[in-house]
Write a structure and sequence with these properties.
three-stranded antiparallel β-sheet; 42% helix; Chemotaxis Receptor Methyltransferase Cher, domain 1; Rossmann fold; 2 domains; 18% strand; single chain; 11 helices; alpha/beta
Length: 277
């Protein structure tokens, strides 16, 4: 793989998605971009990369989406979902008793397992019909969003985290797997969205799940994105990152919830957001 072409690919990814591509990831480039090369008529991945500087928008978008990680599973890191069920949801339902409105955003939702897991928990809470609960799920990959909206999963995918009780209650069996039932699907709105773009369309959000999205982000883009997350999150809301994601050296605006790794709230003194130097 040509060093110059690899460097240009890394620059494209950073500019278009905020992702960093280390030089050690050449094997990842080949495996992720081979299907894209074939789809666009290139014999080899190297041929695609050599033409990337002159590529049309369609190809650049396909390359960027292919290089993002879309691995997901239902109720992944179950402790997070238990905290949502036992602490976050009851707390916000009490705080929103007058408005009877709750808004949740799953950023980097991949093929939909995370927002559907949250929808199942909300469904089990059996809220009164006059409650309006909106779960917004976004991802950079338009292909992942299309698949997520369909709500169809293989046997292997449902076995990764779905209990027998939830499978019976929330899924219907199909010839080649399972599909989320319509009630749960209606609770989630899917949309292709780049976290580097404006958050203006979102409005105020009560809970933001943005788990493992920042693991390979450029540090400066991560700080800018956290600033926008801060502005979007309700003052008494929750930000949920991956269990291994810390904000030390990045943001002083959020404080970690005690005993729950990766769960944050706005710091009392953080108005407006204060970025770490």
């Amino acid at each position: 793989m040509n060093t110059s072409d690899f460097a240009y690919l890394a620059d494209v990814l950073k500019r278009r998605s905020g992702l960093l591509l280390p030089a050690s990831k050449t094997h990842l480039v080949s495996s992720r971009l081979t299907p894209v090369a074939r789809r666009f008529g290139f014999r080899k991945t190297d041929d695609l990369l050599s033409e990337l500087r002159h590529a049309p928008e369609e190809l650049l978008r396909a390359v960027t989406e292919a290089m993002t990680t879309n691995d997901s599973s239902f109720f992944r890191d179950c402790g997070v979902f238990e905290h949502f069920r036992g602490v976050i949801l009851p707390s916000l339902l009490s705080a929103r008793a007058q408005s009877r409105s709750l808004r949740v955003w799953c950023a980097g939702s991949s093929t939909g397992q995370e927002p559907y897991s949250l929808a199942m928990i909300v469904d089990e809470a059996k809220l009164a019909r006059d409650w309006h609960v909106e779960i917004i799920a976004t991802d950079l990959s338009s292909d992942a969003i299309v698949r997520a909206a369909e709500g169809r999963y293989t046997n292997y995918e449902t076995q990764r985290g779905v209990s027998a009780q939830n499978l019976v209650r929330h899924f219907s069996q199909e010839e080649d797997g399972w599909r989320i039932n319509e009630r749960i699907r209606r609770m989630v709105t899917f949309r292709a969205f780049n976290l580097l773009d404006s958050f203006g369309w979102l409005g105020e959000i009560d809970v933001i799940f943005c788990r493992n999205v920042f693991l390979y982000f450029d540090p400066s883009e991560k700080r800018r994105c956290l600033e926008r997350l801060f502005a979007t999150l309700a003052d008494d809301g929750y930000l949920v990152l991956g269990a291994s994601e810390m904000l030390t050296g990045t943001s002083k605006a959020f404080v970690e919830v005690e005993d729950v790794r990766g769960c944050f709230r706005k710091g009392r003194a953080a108005r407006p957001m204060a970025l770490a130097s």
